[in-house]
């Protein structure tokens, strides 16, 4: 009869082993749960300023609250994610802010081939472009290239991850080695001073010349006989300009009474802040400062106003902000014109100030430059004033000068 081998396990050691096994399984489960990325649908429903990883397909470039370019990409400032690569409804997308360190790798203007890629993005779930968003990303990686995109930023020497280490200090542009060369690499007050010296060199127009300039700078890309009104967005015949009802006239985005410079040659004729607008809407805006909120404005869908402020439609909030900030840099009080400056007030009267700066900064960040605004900047530079709005070429300079 064969011998039986008997193994005796001490009860206390057995209990310890079981407890260790349970703890290991629980820890592994928690880690797996924590690492699971949110879907885009979940991210849209979780706009609570928490830091999360979201997995989705890159489906385009957001340029407004309800507009995403799927071709003809204009910049590298944002991407839209969706749960399917063919999604076209913006309500099913989350807009991802591309801060400086991510633009050269994930921006669609530079890398249009990224369209359709599935990525994991870790960032803050909060509104961007007044739309469900994911801001200030700390990690972006193609799905399958790195099992843990959250930690990929700590391994910049890895050869297997497509996540780029955040080493870049700013975007580059076609005028950086020429027009903006004295400003490149500077920040804060030094950047401001340098930009002022650059852009104050300009051809000064007369107020009559502004009519012709606006017919060129604000031409409707779909109808060369028309211009686009800044606030209303209406396309109207270039020839239908004047002071009559339903005609368009010359709107001073920096209200000319804020500094009392009127329409004399100088800030009063600077087309970087003069735009076509419906006569009635122009009158409603008057000399109001800029802020969020108010009641609806007749003949201006998406515009709001109250007793002390005006809010333009979402598609041009950034345009308005960058025009105001251009004026602040261009007119520093050293050439017989007022020293213009944005502030936090909506009761500036005839003082050379306009508000609110915090709102304007948010508008600039939420509505980056689009193709229309960029073309306008180029036409002014090439044909009319021969200077540029630096915040269209480098939107990141806004936060450098006004942190």
Please characterize this protein's 3D structure.
Helix content is 29%, strand content 21%. With 403 residues, the protein is α+β, with helices and mostly antiparallel strands. The protein has a five-stranded mixed beta barrel. A hairpin with a 2-residue loop joins strand 1 and strand 2. Helix 8 packs across helix 9. It is globular. The termini are far apart. About 8% of the residues have low confidence.
CA distance, first residue to last residue = 88 Å
As a percent range, the share of strand residues is 15-25%
Beta strand count: 17
- Return the string of H and E elements: HHEEEEHEEHHHEEEEEHEEEEHEEHHHH
> Helix/strand/pairing class, anyone?
alpha+beta
Largest sheet strand order: 1-3-4-6-5
Uncertain residue ranges = 28-34, 145-169
The largest β sheet comes out as: 5 strands, mixed, barrel
Layout of secondary structure:
Layout: H1 11-35, H2 40-44, E1 51-64, E2 67-69, E3 78-82, E4 93-97, H3 100-106, E5 118-125, E6 133-142, H4 149-152, H5 188-199, H6 207-217, E7 219-220, E8 223-228, E9 235-237, E10 248-252, E11 274-278, H7 279-285, E12 289-290, E13 295-297, E14 300-305, E15 309-311, H8 317-330, E16 341-343, E17 353-355, H9 357-366, H10 371-384, H11 390-393, H12 397-401
Parallel strand pairs: 4-6, 12-15, 16-17
Antiparallel strand pairs: 1-2, 1-3, 1-5, 3-4, 5-6, 7-8, 8-9, 10-11, 13-14, 14-15
């Amino acid at each position: 009869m064969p011998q039986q081998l008997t193994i005796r396990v001490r009860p206390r050691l057995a209990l310890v082993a079981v407890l260790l096994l349970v703890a290991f399984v629980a820890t592994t489960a928690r880690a797996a749960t924590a690492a699971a990325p949110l879907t885009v649908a979940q991210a849209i429903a979780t706009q609570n300023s928490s830091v999360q990883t979201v997995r989705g397909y890159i489906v385009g470039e957001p340029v407004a609250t309800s507009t995403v370019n799927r071709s003809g990409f204009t910049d590298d400032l944002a991407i839209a994610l969706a749960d399917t690569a063919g999604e076209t409804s913006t309500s099913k997308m989350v807009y991802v802010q591309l801060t400086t360190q991510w633009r050269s790798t994930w921006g669609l203007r530079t890398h249009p081939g990224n369209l359709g890629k599935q990525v994991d993005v870790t960032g803050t779930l909060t509104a961007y472009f007044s739309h469900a968003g994911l801001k200030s990303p700390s990690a972006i990686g193609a799905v399958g290239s790195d099992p843990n995109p959250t930690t990929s930023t700590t391994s910049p020497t890895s050869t297997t991850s497509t996540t780029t280490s955040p080493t870049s200090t700013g975007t580059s542009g076609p005028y950086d080695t020429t027009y903006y060369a004295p400003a490149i690499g500077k920040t804060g007050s030094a950047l401001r001073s340098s930009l002022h010296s650059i852009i104050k060199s300009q051809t000064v127009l007369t107020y009559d010349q502004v009519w012709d300039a606006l017919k060129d700078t604000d031409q409707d890309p779909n109808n060369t006989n028309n211009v686009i009104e800044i606030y209303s967005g209406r396309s109207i015949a270039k020839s239908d300009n004047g002071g009559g009802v339903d005609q368009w006239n010359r709107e001073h985005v920096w209200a000319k009474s804020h500094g009392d410079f009127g329409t004399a040659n100088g800030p009063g004729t600077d087309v970087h802040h003069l735009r076509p607008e419906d006569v009635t809407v122009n009158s409603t805006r008057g000399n109001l400062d800029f802020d969020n909120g108010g009641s609806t404005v007749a003949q201006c869908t998406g515009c709001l106003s109250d007793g002390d402020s005006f809010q333009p439609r979402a598609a041009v909030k950034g345009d308005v902000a960058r025009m105001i900030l251009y004026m602040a840099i261009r007119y520093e009080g050293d050439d017989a014109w007022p020293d213009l400056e944005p502030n936090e007030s909506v009761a500036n009267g005839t003082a050379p100030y306009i508000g609110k700066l915090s709102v304007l900064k948010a508008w600039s960040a939420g509505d980056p430059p689009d193709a229309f605004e960029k073309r306008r900047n180029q036409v002014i530079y090439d044909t009319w004033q021969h200077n540029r709005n630096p915040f269209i070429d480098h939107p990141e300079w806004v936060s450098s000068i006004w942190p």
